[in-house]
Amino acid sequence: MDLYDAMSTLRAVRRLRPDPIDEEVMERVLTAATWAPTGGNTQPWRIVAVTDPAKKQALQDLYSPHWDAYIPGYEARLEHMPEDAKTSSIKAMEAGNYLASHMHEVPIIAVFCFNPKLMAITDAELNRPSVVGGGSVYPAVQNLLLACRNEGLGCVLTTLLCYEEESVKALLNLPEDWYTCAHVPIGYPVLGGHGSIRRRDMKQMVRFNEW
Amino acid sequence: MDLYDAMSTLRAVRRLRPDPIDEEVMERVLTAATWAPTGGNTQPWRIVAVTDPAKKQALQDLYSPHWDAYIPGYEARLEHMPEDAKTSSIKAMEAGNYLASHMHEVPIIAVFCFNPKLMAITDAELNRPSVVGGGSVYPAVQNLLLACRNEGLGCVLTTLLCYEEESVKALLNLPEDWYTCAHVPIGYPVLGGHGSIRRRDMKQMVRFNEW
After folding, report:
1. Which of the two ends of chain B, N or C, has the fewest CB atoms closer than 10 A to its terminal CB?
2. Angle at A90 between CA A85 and CA A92, to 5 degrees
3. How far is Cα A39 from Cα A137, in angstroms, rounded to an integer?
4. How far is residue A178's CA from residue A54's CA, in Å, rounded to a whole number?
5. pLDDT for A82-137, tens place per residue?
6. What are the Cα distances from residue B120, in Å, to A3, A158, B42, B133?
């Protein structure tokens, strides 16, 4: 696919079919992740690709209660939304409900792991939440999502399972120094899959020379 | 460009020419950033695109001492590297030196800002560095880098200026709740620009079902 076509039609696709994904397709998607830049080229991330049914079920069991807890706040925010945003957010919520009860049957869940000891986290000492470590993992996640788009695979970046990191680490046998930062269910879409997206206009997102 | 071609040839390009960039080209690059996914689609980031010569010089003046401080550790790591990695790392260091003294003349420095109050940071309470906030900004940074690649523009993701966040906020007049997470100098390449990259093989980066 053309780069801009892929980017501008990459949606969060949460209704995924259980159908298997060819090995060569998954290899292309996973290889695309490795191409991403990382600080000092240390590539301080790994993927544990979960395909085992029992482990997928375990991830769903850990995920669902957090999704359920997320819903009331989500519904509260709907109240204040303009009509078009509201419609699309309700659809997203329903798709999220679907994912929360079907995660066990998606063919693959890519769990991104990272090791902070391999990162230079330049905002670690600032008096606000640190994000810079994410600069060496989420570009790889975005490459993976775009590659899924390219291959006709649905996918969505989730982070709710970080609330259950200890359990996920035990489930996947992660070393002590490695943690989790993204959980991407991947599969062929149940419905239309990728397509038009709703984003703010560029002119709302960019200023020149000062705020 | 084809998606995989763009991704697999996206390099950190640190030698950038002062030549101007057409407005329509920059609009495409900045628009590509807006297409990225963010948690809850809140798009909790903005870009301040710095083109003003005095402000670019000020950013360089803040950046250079941190680059200089970074060099000794970088050189120490070279000692333990295999020969091919060493050669490429020395080149990167020299290019970094170039950037540190020419940042003031690049046509544009994209300063990515974010507001943590608009983010659900699911790893905020864990006993390790938080990265999840980065999940709502660095996919946009990666889109911007890939779009630069597509347009023949050199670029590199830097985060050293986070050490000087207070000064950068004052320089760009950022609101209190907004912080900085990436500084991307953009310009046409002095030398070959993008091309082959050195990354670990996919099989080293991915495991199945357990570590």
Report:
1. C
2. 95
3. 9
4. 22
5. 888 888 889 999 999 999 999 999 999 999 999 999 999 999 999 999 999 999 99
6. 29, 11, 10, 7
Main-chain dihedrals φ then ψ at residue B181, nearest 5 degrees = -140, -10
CATH superfamily of B3-197: NADH Oxidase (3.40.109.10)
| This prediction's pTM | 0.97
Instruction: Assess contact for B132 and A162: CB atoms under 8 A.
Output: yes
- A32 CB neighbours in chain B (<8 A) are 4, 7-8
Average pLDDT over residues B85-106: 94
User: Which positions in chain B touch A36 (Cβ < 8 Å)?
Assistant: 7, 142
The separation between the first and the last C-alpha atoms of chain B, rounded to the nearest angstrom, is 36
The answer, for A72 touching chain B at a CB cutoff of 8 Å, is no
Domain boundaries, chain A: 3-54+105-205
Token output for B1: 């460009």
Q: What gap in Å lies between CA A22 and CA A2, rounded to an integer?
A: 22
Q: Is A42 on the interface with B (CB under 8 A)?
A: no
B35/A8 touch (CB, cutoff 8 Å), yes or no: yes
Q: What is the average per-residue pLDDT within A178-190?
A: 98
Q: Do A142 and B137 touch (CB under 8 A)?
A: no
Backbone dihedral angles phi then psi of residue A99, each to the nearest 5 degrees: -60, -45
Report the C-alpha dihedral over residues A80, A83, A87, A89, rounded to 10 degrees: -30
Average pLDDT score, chain B: 96
pLDDT at A32 over 90: yes
